[in-house]
Amino acid sequence: MDKKRRIKYIDLCKGLGILMVTWGHITKLDNPVDTWAASFKMAIFFVAAGYLIRYADSYRTQTLKGYSVKLLKSLMLPYVLFSILSIGFRFATMIMKHRIDIPAIKSYILATITLRGTFALWFLPVLFIAEILFFCLIKYLPKWMRIVILIVIPVFGIWESYFIRHLIVSVDPLTFERISFLILPISKALIALWFLEIGHIGCMLFSKVTSREIRFMIGLVFTIGNIFLSQQNIGVDLNNISLGIHPPLFFVTGIIGSFGALFVFEFLEDYVPFTILNYFGKNSLILMCTQRPFYIISTATAGWKIISGMPGIMAWRYYIDCLGAMILVMIIEYSIITFVNTKAKFLIGRF
């Protein structure tokens, strides 16, 4: 296989991830679908990235300087540009409503500068830091350090999850916000680094399983296992280092959920086109940067309420309403994606 071409099942995993992120931004009520999605919707991006790094052997000929420049262009430039646009957009909406919230604008700016990030934009600096650390780990540090990281980071993450939970109830919201600006970016980057390493190791190990059918069966077992285990760990929100009521399960479900999707999509891509999922996977960066900062989620949800009424009660109807709102989000995002890819490529680091 040509290792320079796009790997479709990687894009399909990213597509699944961004759809789950969108679902989580739409749904407001605790429900089993959101609990399942939250168990690996961010981990799948990091695991897929680590898997791809190993598969393509992309570090072999690169230098730290060259790799850093590449990531600055593909991740941090979009982070800066979309942050500026989103803050400007929010300020403009405040002017239109004659309710200028200066503290909110200051908070957006501070979050951007500290790399805490506004809305889902936090993902970009976290991935940037994690990939730089991972590059250094692979290229310059002894192998035993990788074993140490595999052990230490989950322990640290579990401890910090409890610490954050205690901190939220111990200090006032403003103090917690300021503290979070300092500690959350690097904490999330370390967890992302761990999943990058898991993806890298997983690619190395599962490449020895040459039968796609066997990998598919492993993927099914992992997926079924994740559906069950995820329901035992409600309250997962990586953005705020909330790893659920049973934090160790966060790492387990992140692994099996991500590899389950990888192996299932690897097998099914030859039989099912997955055209829409593939499209949104290739453009997941744009969706991550636009759907909340520019009120795409709010607009679609309000629009669907006009269509259906969207009662806020947990029943089968609620899932249909959330799905309807998500379809409207994707219709709107299709126009934004088309515009960015044809008229404003510089926003995603392409020139």
Helix and strand topology:
Blueprint: H1 8-26, H2 32-38, H3 43-56, H4 64-96, H5 102-113, H6 123-140, H7 143-170, H8 173-206, H9 212-230, E1 236-237, E2 242-243, H10 247-268, H11 275-282, H12 284-290, H13 296-308, H14 316-343
Antiparallel strand pairs: 1-2
Describe the structure in your own words.
The chain has 351 residues and is an all-alpha fold. Helices cover 75% and strands 1% of the residues. The chain has 14 helices and 2 strands. It has helices spanning 8-26, 32-38, 43-56, 64-96, 102-113, 123-140, 143-170, 173-206, 212-230, 247-268, 275-282, 284-290, 296-308, 316-343; strands at residues 236-237, 242-243. A hairpin with a 4-residue loop joins β1 (236-237) and β2 (242-243). α1 (8-26) packs antiparallel against α3 (43-56), α3 (43-56) packs parallel to α8 (173-206) and α7 packs antiparallel against α8. The longest helix has 34 residues, at 173-206. The model has no long low-confidence stretch (mean pLDDT 93).
Count of DSSP strands: 2
Radius of gyration: 20 Å
Largest sheet: 2 strands, antiparallel
Overall pLDDT level:
93
Please name the defining characteristics of this protein.
single chain; 351 residues; mainly alpha; 75% helix
Summarize the entry for a quick read:
The chain has 351 residues and is an all-alpha fold. The protein has helices at residues 8-26, 32-38, 43-56, 64-96, 102-113, 123-140, 143-170, 173-206, 212-230, 247-268, 275-282, 284-290, 296-308, 316-343; strands at residues 236-237, 242-243.
